[in-house]
């Protein structure tokens, strides 16, 4: 009997403890009504985030989440391909596609090489500390193997071109490899980047024509180099404080408060180069209108630039894609206009040739 009473008392204590626990517990939360499904985003950054976790570091290493640099590498190629098109014709879309694939691969390879050289520096800079190599997401060996894969695919693209273009394209590899070292040696690494990034201005023409027409290609190439000095100097102003601390050089540090004057000079040189290239391949009104629009865009960029605000520098840097697209559209329209002009020139010749038999018949009648 005593044992039974003890068990009942113990059960009562357990029930009391459970009751107190339930009383102290917070009331159950209602689930908030779910809103409309999130719309799909096809931005490059969103696509990289949605990739498998093991793949993401490699995609970030080749900067697929930041496509602005790929555009800036690709657009000089489109200019050259467009200028090489026959009058009245659009650029060759197959060649444009090949160069687009090549731009993605070579920009990725360049970024991989840059990060392999700079991983110790990147750890000390807030903006670059999260890069895959600096953050330890992948090893140097893994990035080296990945670099080999990118260069192999880029070689496959290059081998689709003619022999002249294959040799010309291979010659640019030395610039791609040595550019990251230049920031340790000179305050003008942006110049070396411009020489590498605008190689497509030579390669695009040779891919269409079989060789370079230097009176067109060289001014176009130099215009592209000046353009790179503009946008990459703006880009370098984002990191100038960190660059001073770790001993990295750039045109942003070289020009300092005189940056806008230098950028204005580079812009004028770019416009002169574009005009010279246009004159040497008989470009027309739409082309020069686009060059004027490019000049206005650059002037607005430089006038409104705040070199002490990194977010403004990034905004101005990415806006240069618009500059390149404007010029490409002008080239296409200029070629179509050129085709109309050539048709007008041919019509009088056809009319005169059509009159020739009549004139001959008249002469025969007079002679008889």
TrEMBL record:
One of its GO terms (cellular component) is mitochondrial inner membrane. The chain crosses the membrane at residues 151-179, 191-208, 214-231, 262-279. It catalyses: all-trans-nonaprenyl diphosphate + 4-hydroxybenzoate = 4-hydroxy-3-(all-trans-nonaprenyl)benzoate + diphosphate; an all-trans-polyprenyl diphosphate + 4-hydroxybenzoate = a 4-hydroxy-3-(all-trans-polyprenyl)benzoate + diphosphate; all-trans-decaprenyl diphosphate + 4-hydroxybenzoate = 4-hydroxy-3-(all-trans-decaprenyl)benzoate + diphosphate. It is found in: Membrane; Mitochondrion inner membrane. Its EC number is 2.5.1.39. Keywords: Isoprene biosynthesis, Membrane, Mitochondrion, Mitochondrion inner membrane, Transferase, Transmembrane, Transmembrane helix, Ubiquinone biosynthesis. It comes from the Eukaryota. PANTHER family: 4-HYDROXYBENZOATE POLYPRENYLTRANSFERASE, MITOCHONDRIAL (PTHR11048:SF28), PRENYLTRANSFERASES (PTHR11048). Belongs to the UbiA prenyltransferase family. This is 4-hydroxybenzoate polyprenyltransferase, mitochondrial. It comes from Dromaius novaehollandiae. The gene is COQ2.
